[in-house]
Every structure is written in structure tokens, then in C-alpha cells.
Design brief:
With 426 residues, this protein is an alpha/beta fold. The chain folds into 2 domains: 215 residues, D-Maltodextrin-Binding Protein, domain 2, CATH 3.40.190; 188 residues, Periplasmic binding protein-like II (D-Maltodextrin-Binding Protein, domain 2, 3-Layer(aba) Sandwich), CATH 3.40.190. The strands form 4 sheets. A 5-stranded mixed sheet has the order 2-1-3-14-6, with helices on both faces. Strands 11-8-12-7-13 form a 5-stranded mixed sheet. Helix 11 packs across helix 19 and helix 18 packs antiparallel against helix 19. It is globular.
Length: 426
């Protein structure tokens, strides 16, 4: 279910915006560096990693770019997020059928840039990114002092909850993991349903747990692995405790689908998720009345509440045969008009500071919740190995949360695997 204007009206509105927005959105001057090259033309192939609830809107938005540049053809390709990092690297390394523009997780940019796969963002656009975008979002597109990507959306995690189920059980949204267990027991007693669905097959969902214990995966400044220190062990213990206590359901495979299904159907009263899940969540039986969906900060561990900075950036392939049009496309897709439209339709958070002053963004309850959460989110280490760390962490997180390994074993193994990847780190 989507909010706001219908798809046909969306295309028309974006076409009008693309025509009217001038240099801020798509005028080729910022993207290509000058106007000497004349009218843009050719094909821009965009590999988009958005989910099923988002991709139809993003395809229409992307194809509306031709209203400003009628001689440019946009070829939209949706690439499943789970396959995207390796698929993009393979395409870039071979140069065969590589896209001109990619939608990259913020954790991938430094990796791709270190391999010289990305074209630098034009200088005039860099000035705008540094001046007009959220500082944390702008940082995700940089590597070794240069800018290789423009932030499209920024996000973090929050606690989604079913207002009716919590009210029926007489509990408030929990603010700590201990309160999660207390609330879950009341929900189980009243409804027979689970309190929380905790995704157990994705490393991103482990991050609030380790931040909540005052820890982090690595200390990039001192080149030290920290996932296996005392805070890391506590984080793995916290994950296991939520499941073994009965407070949370989990699953070692297809966690996204199982989590969404359980929450949307009322089998679980709470889940931890991000703004990208709002549109799909509204499609569930429990949320035909959208007012039944509540979002609160991620519950704190024993030290604090902490949630990771996430999001996606747009970057141009260094080997593109159409870099001028590709950079213009990135400028358009990250323009204020498009970001406001995405916030209205999909509850996604803009990366442009001024976008938050627009009525359609101010009017989005979910955006207004998540923006303060993003402001307090923990910035990840923007190192090339960032994405590579997530695979061994996922394996150990899954083992710990399901009881296949002890928390101590999971932390120790994760640390050892990290040091193999981060050669020379302590």
C-alpha cells in the first residue's frame, strides 16, 4: 500500500519537477562540469537495489528523467539487495554489461572506490553535497578525502510495534531489553502471541545490540578489532537471551520475509526494522488502519540505546561510456524534489537538509520519527572492508541467536575472521 498520489500522477508530478528544478536537480552543468558538451543523449543503465514495495516507484521516478533530457534513455534494472554487492563487483571488474549508475549500500562505497570502480563526483556537485546534505550522509560517499557517491536516502533502525496488541496487554513500548522481556511475557499471557520478532540472519540487526553494550565492531582509528571484547560477548549473549527467554522469535533463514509476515499478521507484536519497511508493513492485515503502527527507539542494552546509520548512495561507474548523462541522472535522483516525493510515497528519509522543511516531509509521521533517530545513529567505519565483515558476523550472529554456538564462541570466531580480513589489525 502506498500513500499519496497515484502512480500516473507521480510520473506527471516528477516530470514537471524535473523540468522546473533547474541546476539543483538535473541540469547537466553540475553533473558534467560544464555545458560545453551540448545536449545529453544515449542510455543510462541504473542498477537499483530497492525492495519490492519501493521498486515500482523508483522505476517511474527514474524514467521521468527523460522529461528533462528527452534524448537520454534510462534503462532500469532491479537487482535484489542480497546479491547486489557481488554482482556489481563482478560487472565492474569485467566491464561486461556493467551499469552506468548503481545504488550502493553506504557500506559498499569505500570498497568500490578503493578498487577504482567509481568515477569521482564532479567538483560542483561535491560542493553542494558538502553544503546541502546531512553531514553523516555526505560522509558515507567519501573515501580518502575524495567524493565518489551522492547520498540518496539515509536510515536507521527503530522498534515497530502493534499499538492495539500492546494496549490489550497493558504495556508501553519497551525502552530497554529487560523491558522487552517483561512486555513480551504480558503479551504472551494476554494474546498467546510472541512479543518480538528479532531478525537472526542479518548482521545489521546485531549492531543495536553491540552498540547497546557500549561496543562496536572495530576501532578504525586505532586499527583494532573490538567485536570480540567484553561488550561484544555481552551483545551475543543479549541476542541469545531474548530468544531463549521466549521474548523473541527468530529464524536462521529468510529472516526478512518471516519477520514481516509475523508482524503484519499479528503473530508478533513488535519487530526491529527501518523506514524502508513502512510501505510493506502498511500492507499487512494488522495495519489496514495505519494508525495502529507505532515506532519507538530501539531498546537500550545495559549501557545505552544505539542504532546504526544506514542508507544508500548513488555512484557512477568509472568505465561508463556516458558519464555526463550518468552524473546528471544521479543529480536528478538525489534532487530535493525526488527526495521529497520518496519521503511522501515510501516514508524514506531524505539526505538533503532543506527537504525536511517541505510540507510533504513534515507531514510524514514515520519520517518525523526516524529523523531524530538518524541524528543519534552510530556512524559506521567507512573502510573498504566494511561490507566484507558482515558475512562472517552474520554466520556467528545466527549461531549465537539460535544456540548453535555459545556467545563466547561466536565472539571469538567473529574476531578471528575479522583479523583475517583486516590484515595487520590488532
Amino acid at each position: 500500500m502506498r500513500r499519496g498520489i497515484a502512480a500516473t500522477a507521480l510520473v506527471a508530478a516528477l516530470a514537471l519537477a524535473a523540468t522546473a528544478c533547474g541546476g539543483d536537480a538535473s541540469d547537466g552543468k553540475d553533473a558534467a562540469g560544464d555545458n560545453a558538451g551540448g545536449e545529453l543523449s544515449g542510455t543510462v543503465t541504473w542498477w537499483d537495489t530497492s525492495n519490492d514495495a519501493e521498486k515500482a516507484s523508483f522505476q517511474k521516478i527514474a524514467e521521468a528523467f527523460t522529461a528533462k533530457h528527452p534524448k537520454v534513455t534510462v534503462k532500469y534494472v532491479n537487482v535484489p539487495y542480497g546479491d547486489a554487492q557481488n554482482k556489481v563487483k563482478n560487472a565492474f571488474s569485467s566491464g561486461s554489461d556493467a551499469p552506468d549508475v548503481i545504488r550502493a549500500d553506504v557500506g559498499w562505497v569505500a570498497d568500490f572506490a578503493s578498487l577504482q570502480y567509481l568515477d569521482e563526483v564532479p567538483a560542483e556537485t561535491v560542493k553542494k553535497v558538502d553544503a546541502e546534505f546531512l553531514p553523516a550522509a555526505a560522509a558515507s560517499g567519501k573515501y580518502e578525502g575524495k567524493t565518489y557517491a551522492v547520498p540518496q536516502v539515509i536510515d536507521t533502525l527503530g522498534l515497530f510495534y502493534n499499538k492495539k496488541m500492546l494496549a490489550d496487554a497493558g504495556v508501553q513500548p519497551p525502552t530497554t531489553l529487560e523491558e522487552v522481556k517483561t512486555a513480551a511475557a504480558a503479551i504472551k499471557a494476554k494474546t498467546g502471541k510472541a512479543g518480538l520478532y528479532l531478525r537472526g540472519d542479518d548482521s545489521y540487526w546485531f549492531l543495536p545490540l553491540i552498540y547497546g553494550e557500549g561496543g562496536d565492531l572495530v576501532d578504525a582509528k586505532n586499527k583494532t578489532v573490538t567485536v570480540d571484547n567484553a561488550a561484544g560477548v555481552k551483545a551475543f549473549k543479549a541476542a541469545r537471551d531474548l530468544v531463549s527467554s521466549g521474548a523473541a522469535l527468530t529464524n536462521a533463514t529468510d529472516g526478512w520475509t518471516n519477520m514481516q509476515t509475523a508482524f503484519k499478521s499479528g503473530e508478533a507484536a513488535m519487530m526491529i526494522n527501518g523506514p524502508w519497511a513502512v510501505a510493506d508493513t502498511y500492507a499487512g492485515d494488522q495495519f489496514k488502519d495505519k494508525a495502529n503502527l507505532g515506532v519507538a527507539p530501539v531498546p537500550a542494552g545495559s549501557v545505552k540505546a544505539g542504532s546504526p546509520q544506514g542508507g544508500h548512495d548513488l555512484a557512477v561507474y568509472a568505465g561508463s561510456k556516458n558519464t555526463a548523462a550518468a552524473h546528471a541522472f544521479v543529480a536528478y535522483m538525489t534532487s530535493q524534489e525526488v527526495q521529497v516525493q520518496s519521503a511522501k510515497e515510501l516514508s524514506l528519509l531524505p539526505t538533503r537538509t532543506a527537504a525536511y522543511e517541505q510540507p510533504d516531509v513534515k507531514g510524514s509521521e514515520m519520517v518525523q520519527f526516524f529523523k531524530p533517530a538518524v541524528d543519534k545513529a552510530v556512524e559506521r567505519a567507512w573502510i573498504p572492508e566494511n561490507g566484507s565483515l558482515f558475512e562472517p558476523l552474520k554466520v556467528e550472529y545466527t549461531k549465537a541467536i539460535t544456540g548453535a554456538s555459545t556467545p563466547e564462541e561466536a565472539a571469538k570466531t567473529a574476531g578471528a575472521e575479522f583479523r583475517k580480513i583486516l590484515k595487520g589489525w590488532k
